[in-house]
Every structure is written in structure tokens, then in C-alpha cells.
Design a protein that fits this description.
The chain is mainly alpha-helical. It has one domain (22-100). The chain has helices spanning 2-20, 22-28, 36-71, 76-100.
């Protein structure tokens, strides 16, 4: 019974342990040097990582934009002037993500 439990745990846990290092490998490896499924996984990993970074940046910009708007809540002209850089940054991120989504 104990041996069966060890075998089952090994079968279930081993693939997870083996795949843990793959993401860090893709960060250090040039995807063009890989072939087949490894190259596709590498490119997919890099795209997902870039998308996550863009999403994080957009979230931070949106948070700062909301804080700026709240800070200048009573004065619309001042809010437009002071918060324009956040709005512009969010528009650039939105445009760049729209242009990449068709690939």
C-alpha cells in the first residue's frame, strides 16, 4: 500500500517538478535557436509574458489616472491638463494591443 502511494505521488508530481524549470529556460534561451515544439513553446511563453507586462502597466496607469482625476475632481480643466499623460499612455497601450491582436 505504501509503495503504491509512493508510485502514484511520483507519477502525479514528477511532471510538475520537471516543468518548473522550463519557463526560466525560455527566459534565457534564444527562441530562434530551438526547434519544433520547444521553439513554439518558447515564443508562446515570451508572448504571454509580454502581454502580462503590458496588462500590468496598463493597470498601474489606470490606477494613477483615477487617482489624478479624484485629486482634481472639482476642476475639469486642471484635471484634463494634469492627467493627460496618463490618458495618453493608456491610449498608446490600447492602440498597440489592438494592432498586435490580429496576429
Amino acid at each position: 500500500m505504501k509503495k503504491l502511494r509512493i508510485v502514484l505521488i511520483t507519477i502525479l508530481v514528477l511532471p510538475v517538478i520537471m516543468s518548473c524549470g522550463m519557463n526560466t529556460e525560455y527566459e534565457r534561451t534564444d527562441c530562434s535557436m530551438l526547434s519544433g515544439k520547444d521553439a513554439l513553446r518558447c515564443v508562446d511563453y515570451r508572448q504571454r509574458k509580454a502581454n502580462a507586462e503590458i496588462s500590468h502597466e496598463a493597470a498601474e496607469l489606470l490606477k494613477a489616472y483615477r487617482q489624478c482625476i479624484q485629486k482634481h475632481e472639482g476642476d475639469v480643466a486642471k484635471a484634463k491638463e494634469s492627467c493627460a499623460m496618463y490618458r495618453d499612455g493608456l491610449e498608446r497601450i490600447e492602440l498597440s494591443s489592438m494592432s498586435c491582436s490580429c496576429m
